[in-house]
Specification:
Layout lengths: L2 E2 L5 E8 L3 H12 L1 H8 L3 E7 L14 E2 L2 H5 L6 E4 L7 H10 L3 E4 L2 H18 L3 E2 L11 H7 L5 E7 L2 H13 L3 H10 L8 H4 L2 H15 L9 E2 L7 H9 L2 E13 L5 E13 L11 E8 L3 E8 L3 H21 L21 E11 L4 H11 L4 E9 L2 E8 L2 E2 H12 L4 E10 L5
Parallel strand pairs: 2-3, 2-5, 3-4, 5-6, 6-7, 9-11, 11-18
Antiparallel strand pairs: 1-2, 8-10, 8-12, 10-11, 12-13, 14-16, 14-17, 14-18, 15-16
Helix pairs in contact: 1-12, 2-12, 4-5, 5-10, 7-8, 13-14
Bound molecules: L-homoserine.
Length: about 450
Amino acid sequence: MSTVSPSGSPRIRVALLGCGTVGSEVARLLTEQAGELAARAGAPVELAGIAVRRPDKHPELPTELLTDDAAALVVREDIDVVVELVGGIEPVRSWLLAALNAGKSVVTANKALLAEYSAELFEAADAAGADLYFEAAVAGAIPLLRPLRESMAGDRITRVMGIVNGTTNYILSAMDATGAGYAETLDEASRLGYAEADPTADVDGYDAASKAAILASLAFHTRVTAKDVHREGIADVTASDLAAARTLGRTVKLLAICERVTADDGAESVSARVHPVMIPRSHQLAGVGGAFNAVYVEADAAGELMFYGQGAGGAPTASAVLGDLVAVARNRVVGGRGPRESAHAALPVRPMGQTPTRYHVSLDVADRAGVLAQVAQAFAAHGVSIAAVRQRDANDTASLVVVTHLAPDAALQSTVDEIAKLDVVHEVVSVMRVEGEDA
Ligand code: HSE
């Protein structure tokens, strides 16, 4: 509950859970910009407690604010808002549910938790009349979730597609620039501090899949969890894939793609997927280098929108957290609430196999009569229409590149499996989905 300051305004008292890279920036900005934030929020926003695992490791923080007992801090009588920057599922889920049940509003950057348990958290927030804000959970500093939740609440979003993981974008950009393979580029990224000591969540696509679930849920007013998201990471992307892409004026990016799919009978579903994609070098996402993030949103009335900026890092992520904190504080001051969960559409989630995609297939084949016909026959047998074929000869071998029209992903996979078994195919050099070109 808010207490009353000497000025007569309510004070908004904040519990901070976690004080690492982002938390320490939040604490710094809350202190340094206290006057400005108070003016914007309509009341002083005060740090009232900081829960960390080892208080003795934080000599830079006021001792009287530190505790190692997050569970007690989140339900403390004087706390209005809990800012969670710890990450992971448990014990954070229990802390945040306890906080919401006690009527505290929550600001969190925890994408893994939201991608699994946002329905439960929203229900607890609703029951208590509290707020749940999470702008920093997707694409760091980039204002993206508030536009989806609020600015575009009157539009019909059809697609959200973008680069939402900086680590993988850094690695793929470096592979593209140097021609090096995945393993050595990951090693270099780790050495330079661009990849975590354990990069699994990033390189295997878990981080991006959590973000895709959050984006799809907001964009399509449907509960989409991480389990609904088809996920492929970048560990299998080879120097050959990048070389094949470069030959054709393309590059490779790990994209999160969330789409509203309308069947022939008009029935709508949603699909959410994360996988490496070939895109034309002229595409705006191709120019997003290093650790930056960028997301395209397409909507019926708005048309195409693009959001670009820093997707990680202490200060950029703290910017999004503080924006949420000011919004929550304002709501407390005026007695209102921010947006609740919007899942009324409840559209079915389409499995990846039925999701329409396009493939780029690069093959080394025997260079003799009838080879192209055999390859083309394999596509035709699976109902896959070819959009373009390109052939380059070298001695007895030809390098063949086939780009398809849209077809169900399962049909494309089956086609590639069959082609790989043809005697005339020496090697399947590269198989990659294609986006950003006219089908
Ligand atoms: N690990 C993420 C990335 C940042 O590499 O973009 C936090 O979401």
